[in-house]
Amino acid sequence: MLRSRLWEPSGIGRSPGALVVVGATALLLYGTLRVLWPAVGSPAGSATALLGLIAVLAWGKGIRGSAPLWLLLLSIAVQVLSWGLGYFHHPQWVADNPEVDRLAKLFIFIGVAWWLGGSSRNTLLVWGLAVLGYLVASFAAGGLEEWRKGLEGVRTGFGIRNKQHGSMLFGVALLGLVIFARRIMMNDTRWVPWRCIGWGLALGICVVGIAIGQTRAVWLALAVSFPVAVLIVLLWAINRGMGRRMLRSVIGGVVAGLVLITLGSVFFGGTLSERLETESGVIAEVLQGDLESVPYSSVGIRIHTWVAASDWIAERPLVGWGGEGRGLVIDHTPWLPDEVKERFGHLHNFFLEVWVAYGVLGLGVIAALALWIGRGTWLAWRAGVLPNDMALFGASFFVYWMIVNQFESYNSFWTGVYVHNIVVGGLVTHIWRWQLDTGQRVFSWPRRRGV
């Protein structure tokens, strides 16, 4: 078994020792190398998911009947149903098989959560290695040339799929670095100099990466999620009678943030303002409701494809068009220009893509999962199972993730699937531990009296 100094024993179920070594090692490789070295990280992710699911079913007494397992089955059923009905309605547009991985891959977190074993230390280790792996990958994948071009004002993607995905990963990393700053830089009550230097360096890389990545959705998501985090901290402090003391820390954090924004405007002001102003006319036309006049710019393409998607959704709102739905919208909407059809095969909105593909039933599965995780996180935190900063990160990440997936289908691509499963797995492992410690469920129907 892995040495307990590195990896805490599981608190949610016991698997055979050899399987624990293989599963935990696969998870560590997945977390660290999925972006940095995909040839190793990708199969490690598959091993994490498969072995973890088997272990949950075999040894997960008390958790194998929890919502994530049932929602996984339901997601498969919804995809098969949509495919089957589509086979009778539009067989020429239906894939050869139901392609159940489209939604099922969002449940890799089941394996992640199992191998984390309900441990905060294990979770933070995997999250930290994921950030470290990505920071190294941002230099290794695209090379220093990408950074040089970015610093000169050229939008860059750091060699990670496309320009939006690299920025999204930097945004998640920045959110974590800020929220876990105290935990990273301090040992009990003492500041550790080398940790402070490492944290500052990582923070600087993320801030610059977000600036030169020039992804407006990431800027918007961070501009909303950070204030949400501050508001949550203040409400928590006021509720505990610590408002005045916590206010000083919050003010210090806000001032530090304003300093970073000021420095960013000094060094990247021209690039940032140009990027923000580019689509201002398009947004004004959208707000006026004149959608037909919207040009096919970056924002305009999204607007037009979303309008096209709404027409397809209206025709089959309950079960959708199957796994190929997003491609059907692009390829078979007659009024979309050929250039758009040649360049794009998705809708730049994950939730619309699910709706087009699997209808309200598919959206219902995603909504049910989010609701279960949200309430479970709250309950695990209130019981003291989930630490304060991890709960705060979970809430802030939810806001961030909801926003960025409105403007790019991150959860439809490997980058988003990776982030989703690593983060959600860390939350779910604590929810499972809370369930086992308390004997309670996240949602439970009240028992009828006299029965």
Automatic annotation (TrEMBL):
It comes from the Bacteria. GO terms for molecular function: ligase activity. The chain crosses the membrane at residues 12-30, 36-57, 69-88, 100-117, 124-144, 164-180, 192-212, 218-238, 250-270, 355-373, 385-403, 415-432. It is found in: Membrane. Its main location: membrane. Keywords: Ligase, Membrane, Transmembrane, Transmembrane helix. Residues 202-365 form the O-antigen ligase-related domain. It is a multi-pass membrane protein. Pfam families: Wzy_C. PANTHER family: LIPOPOLYSACCHARIDE BIOSYNTHESIS PROTEIN PA4999-RELATED, TEICHURONIC ACID BIOSYNTHESIS PROTEIN TUAE. This is O-antigen ligase family protein. It comes from Chromohalobacter sarecensis.
